[in-house]
Amino acid sequence: MKLYIKQQVFSWKDKFTIKDEADLDKYTVEGEFFSFGKKLHIYDASGVEVAFIHQKVMSLMPRYFVYQNEQEVAEIVKKFTFLKQAYAVNGPNWKVEGNFNAHMYRVFDQDNPVINIEKAWFSWGDSYVLDIDPAVNEVLALAVVLAIDAANEQANSNNSTNHNGINIKF
Questions:
Q1: Residue 7 CA, distance from chain mean position
Q2: Residue 157 phi/psi, 5° resolution?
Q3: Domain residue limits at 149
Q4: Radius of gyration of the chain from Cα atoms?
Q5: What is the distance between the alpha carbons of residues 132 and 114, in angstroms, rounded to a whole number?
Q6: Residues in contact with 168: Cβ distance below 8 Å, sequence separation at least 6, in sequence order
């Protein structure tokens, strides 16, 4: 199953829609404008919250938690490495490999790929294609990818100024 993410280019508050293969709105993601750390809410097409992502603010490395039905289902942690970026997904115990700066990576359950993420080039703003194994919890997969993207953005914010979760790019 494929999902398509098109993020808004000039948004002070994260808000974007995820579409399905039929180009129908499937999920909406909204961030909180004034919060300590990044907080993202994922809503289904009927407006019901299906997942919540919360950044742990006081952490050496970027760390995000995913909640479904008010239960923590995953923790995404950027690993401390020198040569390349790496992430651990605790909960489902997934491993993540690929080029995070190019937004081309895969998520594995043991040795089986469960999510493939690719950035769509030549588009206005950031557009991504998520190819999710049908046996995987689609909302959890989406939330994990969004948390990795937020952690990657935070890790690469050397040229940014961060004020209460707002990244201002120069």
A1: 11
A2: -85, 35
A3: 2-155
A4: 15
A5: 6
A6: 160, 161, 162
Residue 161 lies inside a defined structural domain of this protein: no
pLDDT beyond 70 at 53: yes
Domain containing residue 69: CATH number: 2.40.160.200
Question: CB of 63 within 8 A of CB of 56?
Answer: yes
In this model, does residue 119 exceed pLDDT 70?
A: yes
For 16, the token pair is 């974007």
Is 60 exposed, middle or buried (CB count within 10 Å of its CB: 0-12, 13-18, 19+)?
exposed
Within 10 Å of residue 166's Cβ, how many Cβ atoms?
16
Dist. CA 119–CA 135, nearest whole Å:
23
Q: What is the pTM of this model?
A: 0.82
Find the DSSP H helices in the chain: 138-155
End-to-end CA distance of the chain: 36
